[in-house]
Amino acid sequence: MTTPHQFVDIDGPVHYVDHGGAGVPVVLVHGLGGSHVNWRRVAPQLAAGHRVLSVDLRGFGLTPLDGHDARLPSQVLLLQRFVSQLTDEPPVIVGNSMGGLVAVLFAARHPDLLAGLVLINPALPIRSGAAISRNTVLRLGLPLIPGLGELVVRHYESSASPEDRITESFQFMTVDPATIDSETMRASIEMARARRNVPGTEKAFTEAMRSIASELLLLQRFRRKLHSIGTPTLLIHGVHDPVVALDSAEWLALERPDWTFLPMDGVGHVPQLETPEAVVHAMNDWIASAVTPRDTRTTSGGGASVKEEPCRQS
Length: 314
Fold this sequence. Notes:
Elements: E1 3-9, E2 13-20, E3 25-29, H1 43-46, E4 51-55, H2 72-86, E5 92-97, H3 98-109, E6 116-122, H4 134-141, H5 148-159, H6 162-173, H7 182-195, H8 201-217, H9 219-228, E7 233-238, H10 246-255, E8 260-264, H11 271-274, H12 276-290, E9 306-311
Parallel strand pairs: 3-4, 3-5, 5-6, 6-7, 7-8
Antiparallel strand pairs: 1-2, 1-9, 2-4
Helix pairs in contact: 2-3, 5-8, 6-7
C-alpha cells in the first residue's frame, strides 16, 4: 500500500503520516526503535471516527536527529510542538512502550494540550527482577553501557539483514509472530532498510534507552509525575509482555485506580499489531465515554510548514 507521507519543520524535518478522518484528533506515538509503521494495523480503523496522525520521534523512523538528541525531554518538546502545529483541538495521545512514557511526561507537563491519554504497554519501572529474561538483558541492557552500547547496536544493525532483524524482533515482542500480517512485515522490513541510510541511528537508540532508564530509576519523582496527571487515561497491557512485565502495569493501575486498566490475555508488547481489532474497539469505546469532544472540529491542521512526498514505508 502506497501512503503519502509528510514532513513538518520543527527545528528540522519531522516525519508523520496523516491517516485522515474527522472528529477528536488522535496522535499515535511509537516505541523505542519503532516508527509510524507500528500503527498501520489500527490507524485506518481509528480514522473512521477520528482524525488520526502518527509521528516519527526524533532519531526514529524517517525523522533524523538533525543536530538534536533523542532523550525524553527532546521527544516531549517535539510532541508538544507537533500537537500545537498539527491539531486544532487537544488530541488523545496514544503511546506504546517508549511512546507511552513520552505520553506520560507530556501529560504531566502540558495538561492543557491533550484531551485523553491511552497507554499501550508503556515503559514503566521494573517491579520484579524475576520478570527480566536473559534475552531482555541482551537486547535492552547492553545498550545502556556507554561506549559498548553504540558498538553493540552498530554491530547488530550491520551484521543482520533487515529481514532477520524484523523477524527476530517480532519473535521477541509478540506471543505469536504469526499474528503479524505479511503487509506489516513487509513495511517493517522496508523501514529497517531505509533506516540504514538515516545517520545517527545508533546514537538515537542508545540516547533514548539511557534516558528511559534515568527517568524510571528515580521512582519517587516518576510517581509524582504520574499523580499530577488529571487527564482521563486508558491503560492497555499485553499480559505476556517480555519487555514491560504485567506486574509493572498492575503497579501503575494501583497507583492510579481512577484510570481504566485493560489487561489483554494472549498478547505481548505490541497489542496494536497483535490484536488490532480489540485495541481499536477498546479505544473507540473509551474515547466515546471518557473524552468530551469540542463542538467545532476540523480535519486539517493549520500553521505548519508541510511537505508531501510518496512513501512506501507504511
